[in-house]
What we know:
Helix content: 25-40%
Number of strands: 15
Strand content: 15-25%
Radius of gyration: 36 Å
Oligomer: single chain
Largest sheet: 15 strands, mixed
Amino acid sequence: MASSSTSSNVEPDADDGVAEELHFDDFTIASSWESRFISEIEAVCRIWMADGPKRLSAKVAVPLGYSKNSYKVKSELKYATKSYCMEYYFETNNNGKPANWRSDFHDLQLCFGVKEFLVIAPQSASSAVLDAPEASKLLSAVAIALSNCSSLWPAFVPVNGPARKAYIGIQNTGTVFNRRFEADQIGSQVPIRLMHLEGLYELFVSKFAYTTLDLSTHLFKVQLTMKLTYRMLPYDDNNIKGIDTQNTKCEEILTSETSSETLWDKDCPWSEWYSAEDPVKGFELITIWSEKMVESSTEMAELENASPYEAEKWLISPICALKLFEDSKWNQIGFASQLHLLVDALKLSFEAQFMENFVSADDNSGSENLKSSMVIPPTVSDRVLKELFQEGIQHTDSAYGGHKTSRAIKGAPLESLFAQFCLRCLWFGDFNIRAIAVLWIEFVREVRWCWEESQLIPRMPANGSIDLSTCLINQKLQMLAACIEKKYEMNEDYQDCIGSEHQIESMAEVLHYLETLQPHQLLEQMVCTAFRAAADTLTQTSYGELKQMETMMQQLYLTMAPALRPLQENRLSADSETIEDLRRLCVVFQHVEKLLTLAASLHRKFLQAPRLAREIFSDFYNFYIPRMGIGLTEDALKKGFDKKQEVWNQEREVVSNMFVQPTANQSWRKVLSMGNLINGHEPMKREIIFSMHDDGANGNHYATHTTTSVCEQKIETYRMYICGTSNDLRVALSVVSSD
Length: 739
């Protein structure tokens, strides 16, 4: 992310000593170059204060990705060999005290409860201050500068390496008090005591209680709010089984059997052709416990054993597969990826006059695609043809049509013989022009056999009418099917059925057309039919009441119709712009297919809570549509789609049941539990904010010398933010004092 900055360069005077001796000393006796450094900080701060948040956001500030109202502006301060970067973070709606658990917080806002603040750090690869003394002196310089310009901004300096997330900070509150900040992290070997709420409570109390007291036996009124984050196990066979068992209780039953080998999309219409990766890998559940007063370690122990159902608020968000955000990589198998290959085959089809030329192509052929294509074993093509020409499969007009708007595309209807041929071609061998040629030649031979043996052509309505809105190949097959059906019913020879030799010749011409069809003419009709049939298949998906998805499917048909129309004009060439238009259409189809897969996944997971499915999909849809065609990195995804939906009380059981009891061999399970379990799942992260307010009348040693007017005002004297997992612990403390 780019950022706007101002730059200041000040060189030391000759009498200040050599450059390598420049360093921060005690600011009680500031050297001349230290004074100039403070002055530079003060000058930049005065400019930012004069401009104010609204003008800064309009002029030079950079918006932050995690919040639409958050910005930052920075300035570089250079002294000899040292260079520092000072950043001012602010919000345009800088009114009131920040909420505790806003999802769009900066890390320091969450840690210390501030809204606007400064961060100053050395310009280096790690952006880390070398050691604590250097950090302290650097912070002193900023504090003096902010005091000189009467600013109440908190200021922070990083300490040690960035992985440790350690900071120190200071703030002038505008009274006799100052607020000091400190944050650090234990990266491993967290003490057992600090993995439990009792120990964390006593850690906070120890910051203001006398060290000689037994903290476990004394009462200290402390305010607490807590946020627990649970992560559902990635969906696997056990999760699918648990969800299917839950779904059987609903009116809409997706399956009558469950097994450990069940695929999540086994009931989806595309499952006949491929199994899609589940776009929802799991869910993240957040439970928020509202602010309450606790007085002892015993209360904390009771809270740790409390059910998450007692939390004030539940929030849920999906964990999406990264492939859902990758742009046109064609590494996710689906109709779109295969249609893309079909368009490639269309481009190659202009290289030969007959389909047999592609079957007999050898290593001396000019096309690299043909050289690398796999030879299809006869057993594979025999199996496909057997499925296509399975006896007894006939269709009425009602089962023949497909989606109501698909007739604008001049292809073959979904259940027709040619449409099923096209769909099977998409998954035949490694799918290329040679594979299509092999299957087409065998397909035409089967059609001729049906004609010669007076066998009914399967998958064709035999009502005698010819649908002129379909492609020419489908019309020819309809003619053959009608004639064979008529003879079959009358049980007479062909001449008696047709009534004239002219009609016999017409049928012979039909077969001749199929056998001598030029490759590009076949591929043009295949492309139209395959797009139409794939869309008609996806339209049958059950995704609940998702208006956005219904509209998107209608728009897909309206987009396909004009894009495919040039294929009907028989004026196409290998270098035609239409080929590129078709490839772009594949990309559009891929976006629709991804969203439809997500809609189906959410629908089946929330059959008993359809509102959640609608709201989660709507959030994702609004996030995804503006970014169509823009590949997102994993970091961008984490920062981008983090919208959370509140779980209503009547929906909590549905969400809870989705957390399947973990097995004993789950690698992430720990011997020591953090408590507050949901079906055996402990929180993956626990965040707590302890706070204590002081009115100056309780004998606190920090307030003993303050004036009466200040002491009468309640202030937050201590605040501790704690973020812990089973592996690490981070603590951020802010203390108000008069020293």
